[in-house]
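seq:
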Amino acid sequence: MAAHQQNLPTRTTGGVVDDDDAIPDIDPTDTSGLLQERLQAYKHACGYLENYITATEKVQKTHAKEYEKIPKTVSDPLKEGHHFDQSLGGIAGLFENIRSNTQGIANSHLETEKTIKGSVLPILERLHAEIKNKSKELSKGAVKGSKEVDKARNGTQKHIELLGQHTAAFASSGGRVDPSTDPYVLQRGVNHRLHKQVLEENNNRHDLIEVQNSFSSFEAHIIQTFQQALQTFLQAVGGQHERQKAMYSDMVSTAQKIPLDFEFKGFVHRNNQLLVDPSAPKRDISHIAFPNQNHPSTQPLIAGTLERKSRALGALKGYSTGYYVVTPSKFLHEFKDDDDVRKDPVPELSLYLPDCTIGALSGEKFNIKGKDASKGKVGSALATSHELAFKAHTPADAEKWYNVIRQAAGGSATYTDEVSSPTSPIENRSVSGQQQPPQYQDKNVAPVQTQGLTQGQGIGSAGPMSAGGQPQQPYNTPVSGGGLQSAGVGSTPTSGVERKPGQY
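struct:
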């Protein structure tokens, strides 16, 4: 017996889940597998009793020599025997007692055959069926839930690894990344998958706790059924020889002395590191940390709600509100909202600001012209430029957004209250003593339209240059003597704007 205890398998895996780990080391299938294995142990224990009584029924027809075959049905060590307390007073002790007492039975009475077959065996057969049904319920419930947890954890782990790859490549690429692999977007994807994983873990944990709690009463029912079967068996063999009766009485007495919670308490004590602690708190995503969670590339430069006028035919609907973010990757992302829980956050619109033309700020409004890069490389190549009109809640908010967007686009972050005036194509010559003509500004000038501007071209840019590096004269440029000199066909105004001054 002592040698057998030394060969029993041991388990070292902890059952306590660390709330700070995104992917806990504990395998949820260990707990469900342990409970499944315990059901198998009781099923085999029930089978041992069935085999024992069945063999007893058959051997009743034979002499003492044939009756000696009975102990062979329970002579081998119990399957999954490490689940039972090996000391006296438990299930393992019960079967040890049965083996020793059966060896002393040499004779049996044929008159008890029918009684045993019709009264004792059906009790154990029904119990065997109950244990099988319990095992099926566990497989469909807790075991299946454990597989869902593994699947959710694998999805989270893959996305965390993807985030690690692109955050590592962020610095080497100069911050130029695809919208779909923007570390900010990948981090929100990790949050989405992590929330789903924690939900699966908590659901599986709840299922396992319910199964554990039900095991105690179910095991009590099993032991009570063992006791009932053996008591009926005692009545069936009551007419046998007094010595046989004494041996069977000893077996029943051993079974009756087993406390209903004796095995389960020992089981919990031996496997407390694998079983779920009902008093432990549930997992909370706010306490979970994962690699690169606070990497600088995942932190937005500015984020909040803006209003944007719909494009094309949708412009008749006016402005619609969305959640916008400017990331260190120099993207302006548009999302429906800032919720990472309900669905995987994928940008509805992505503008790479260095490739866009930024219009002037007018009150709480400003315009950006560029291509939507959220459809990938192929979609971005086929996309056309659109001028998008944005509106903030207040002029102060608009100034914050405008400055951040200008910085991300590579321009100056200086803000002016009014729209800048275009540069006049007339050369400005200062004459001593001559007063310059007054400059007039319209206080109600509309926002500057960026239609027709090339990338990086702003208001008031210099005109075309000659081969010698000197600016070419525009149409009707004044020359000495009061005449007008034509700049030639095909030249453009030095302001870079198609309309005349004052018509913006």
